[in-house]
Amino acid sequence: MSRPHLFLRRWQNWLSLSVILVYILVAIAAPYLSPDDPKEPGPFMRVGRPSESRPAPPRAGSPLGTLPRNIDVYHALVWGTRDALSFGLIVTVSTAIFGILYGAFSGFVGNRLGSFMIRIADSFLAFPAIAGLVFLQQLYGSTITALGGIYVEGQAIDFTAPLSMIRYLLEHVNPLMLSLIILSWMPYARLVHSIVTTLKQTDFVQSARALGGSAFWIVRKHLLPNSMGPAMVLAARDVGGIVVLQATLTFINIGGGSVWGAMLAQGRDWILGPGGSLLTYWWAFLPPTFAVMLFGIAWNMFGDSLGDVLTPTSRDEFYSQSFWSRLGKKDASSKDELLDSIPARLHRSDPVAEEQALRSKPAGKTLVSHAGDLDPAAQSQTQA
Amino acid sequence: MPPFLQFVIRRFLAVPISLLVITMILYGGVMLTPPEARATLYLSENINQNLTVEQLQTIEAQLIRRYHLRDPYPVQYFLWVKTLLNGSWGYSPSLNEFVLPSLLRRTPPTLELALYSLLLLIPLGLVSGMMAGWKRGGHFDRGFRLLAFLSTSTPPFILAIVLLSIFYINLNWFAPGRISLPYRLETMEGSFVYYTGMLTIDSLLNGRFDIMGDAFRHLAMPVFTLSIYHWATLGRVARVSVMGEEKKEYVIAARSRGVIERRIVWKHIFRNTLTPSLTSMTLSATSIVSGVFVAEIIYNINGISSIILSALSGVPDAPAALGFAIYSVIITLLLMFILDVLQAVFDPRVREGVLKI
Fold first, then answer.
1. pLDDT tens column, B73-129
2. Shortest CA distance to A127 belongs to which of B182, B250, B350, B18?
């Protein structure tokens, strides 16, 4: 069965993929869906007087209502999609590439250097993202902001003429993005490291080596493709998690620059405060909440579906069963299959088959039947 | 020496090594700043706000000479670690005090929150995950999977908004903060003795059950917010590993000996699922610690994370940021250490060093 076919056989798979596609379409079409205010570009567009502190319900000109200070919810929601998607994808792709290469190298080298490298990766596992963000923001403050450059080996390096690109980049890169890239590559490295370490001993890699394949060729041709599947599963799940983390940090006001998080932070006093209910000012609460949650859920489910398709073991386990068994009649059909596959005289004594057969019955009965299996006398009693 | 003690010691020795690597990287970042900025790490308390520029420069020059801030990285790093070990981690201008005492003073609220969350989520996650995995496809399993899905897909801060709206603003059962105002005044009086700094325990030791009840009333929402997500992830791992274990030979053997089901699950399989479950928690220790900080900030608990709120307030405050980073790494490492020791308590393979974690 081809991979796209495999993918589409479960409703969760295509549902998550279509939700993600909707997000991508919204992100691409943001300028058409909600054109920027030419005087004041940016995700937070004013549609009225900035002095208005009460969120206003949907009306003509702001289809999803406004936040305090007349900020349009719909506009922020649409542009927030673009922001979230690019943030999540940039962080994930860069961490995945770095982590995979790091893991592949350390796994392939294998000796003391390899284990030293993986030790360093393990040390990074103890570094919370918040701490990294706080530290990097301080570092930004006293290097890029104050110096316009960095200080290396006793002399200041200005990011002027030839290096102004770097300066521009650093000034416009979100510190949280940098902190997350630095602090979330380790899972990929560990994963790929363990896969490569295991694969190195397998026959096909040994034969590739015996054929005279260079190290680079073996890694590129044999080891990396085999670790891509699990790494992609991890990456898909990460996209959602990273965007949720970004929104969280923005909501608690320590940076991150998430539009959805900032929307909730701006509406927070009205969501929690005077209305008496979450839904009194529902347009301040529900749109960003659903946007964040659905984003997280969709990428998570997409990761799971990729796992189904890309990792051979789970595919075999899931798709080798008949169609009906997957629709919830698992126990019945696997019992029949199992009983059919073993000779009749073994039926009584095979505990696996027995257990499979008894799985659907309540626990109490299982116990009794078990006692019966062991002792012929007890068996006759139960039957009687 | 018993193998368990050997394991604990060996595992504990790994803590400073990780710490060394991380501080080296952190100081590598600090090295990107000019020596004058690095000198702020060593400023002392009695620096007067009204110094002239020349006076400040003289002090900076002195500090640069004293701590060899123009020397190569290893020298500087070594001197800095030395001051970390016996010092006060620098004077923070935004906190108006030394960083380490400030961090230590704010530790008990954080510890209290983390402790109750872990005490709640580890047993609940293991037990519910195992029950779900054992009766796969049953009612409990379906309920568990639905609940786990809901709790992993609800971001903690959104859960916090919902909880605050329902249980604080509408029902007023629970409240943010650490303690209500009247009780807070009482705890500030001399008659209330602090033993641990954790209000729930101290009020118990003081015999004040009303204060203890109030402290728990304030802890309920943050603990719930923090536990629910990690409960779900832990429970899922436990569920999957039970499903993997139930086909193993030792289970079949136990069953054929006539061991009752409950005993097979809780006596035989439990120990085997504990290791993968707790390993998954060890790997997500940073997210637990980050979660504690987030919960503290949302629920307005004056814990360690209140330092970053002031450190980010605009004033350049390298000592506070650096101190916070190192301190949270230490907390994470200790959490990982505790989880690993917990594994060793239940799993002989871990403590004998057969199974590497």
1. 888 888 888 888 877 787 777 777 888 888 888 889 899 899 999 999 999 999 999
2. B18
Round to whole Å and give the CA distance between B333 and B278. 14
Q: How far is CA A184 from the centre of its chain?
A: 12
For chain A, say whether B169 makes contact (Cβ under 8 Å). Answer: yes
To the nearest 10 degrees (0 to 180), the angle between helices B209-245 and B285-298 is 150
Selected residues 363-382 of chain A with any CB under 8 Å from a CB in chain B: 363, 366-367, 370-371, 374
- DSSP codes joined into one string, B335-354: HHHHHHHHHHHH-HHHHTTS
Distant-in-sequence contacts of A195-203, Cβ < 8 A, 24+ apart: A195/A103, A195/A107, A195/A223, A195/A226, A195/A227, A195/A230, A196/A103, A196/A104, A196/A107, A196/A108, A196/A223, A196/A227, A197/A107, A197/A110, A199/A223, A199/A226, A199/A227, A200/A107, A200/A108, A200/A110
CB atoms within 10 A of CB B284: 18
Q: Flag if A152 and B256 touch (Cβ within 8 Å).
A: no
Cβ atoms within 10 Å, residue B323:
25
A292–B155 C-beta distance less than 8 A: yes
CA nearest neighbour of A264 among A84, A109, A137: A84
Q: Give the integer Cα–Cα distance in Å for A101 and A109.
A: 12
pTM, two decimal places = 0.82
How far is Cα A197 from Cα A194, in angstroms, rounded to an integer?
A: 5
Contacts of A127 in chain B (CB under 8 A): 22, 286, 325, 329, 332
Sign of CA dihedral B208, B213, B217, B219: positive
Task: Tell me what the pLDDT averaged over chain A comes to.
Answer: 74
Residues of B in contact with A135 (CB under 8 A): 26, 29, 321-322, 324-325
* Option in B37, B152, B336 nearest A142 (CB): B37
Residue of B94, B169, B245, B327 to mutate, testing the A interface (most A Cβ within 10 Å of its Cβ): B169
CB contact under 8 A, A139 and B30: yes
Q: Which DSSP symbol is given to B92?
A: E
Average pLDDT for B161-178: 84
Q: Is residue A53 a contact partner of residue A68, using CB atoms and an 8 Å limit?
A: yes
Note whether B294 contacts A: Cβ–Cβ < 8 A: yes
CB count, 10 Å around CB of A9? 16
Grouping H, G, I as helix, E, B as strand and the rest as coil, residue A66 is: strand
> Looking up tokens 């990792």, which residue turns up?
A311
Which tokens belong to A318?
Answer: 């899931």
**Beta carbon pairs, A and B, within 8 Å:** 172
Residue owning tokens 């909600």: A34
Biggest CA-to-CA distance, chain A: 95
By 3-state DSSP, what share of chain A in percent is helix, strand and coil, each rounded to 5?
A: 75, 5, 25
Residue of chain A minimizing CA distance to B74:
A153
Vertex B314, ends B308 and B317: CA angle to 5°?
60
- Asked whether the beta carbons of residue A130 and residue B294 sit closer than 8 angstroms, the reply is yes
* A contacts of B294 (beta carbons < 8 Å): 130, 248-249, 252
Using CA coordinates, name the residue in chain A closest to B260. Answer: A367
Of A128, A292, A366, Cβ closest to residue B158: A292
Quick count: other Cβ atoms within 10 Å of Cβ B270? 18
Partner residue facing B153 (CB), from A132, A249, A300: A300
Task: Specify the pLDDT at position B81.
Answer: 85
**How many angstroms separate the CA atoms of B153 and A240, rounded?**
10
**A34 min Cα distance to partner chain B (Å):** 26
The pLDDT of residue B98? 82
- Nearest-by-Cβ selection for B316 from A141, A150, A300: A141
ipTM of the complex: 0.86
Q: Which two tokens stand for residue A303?
A: 């990761």
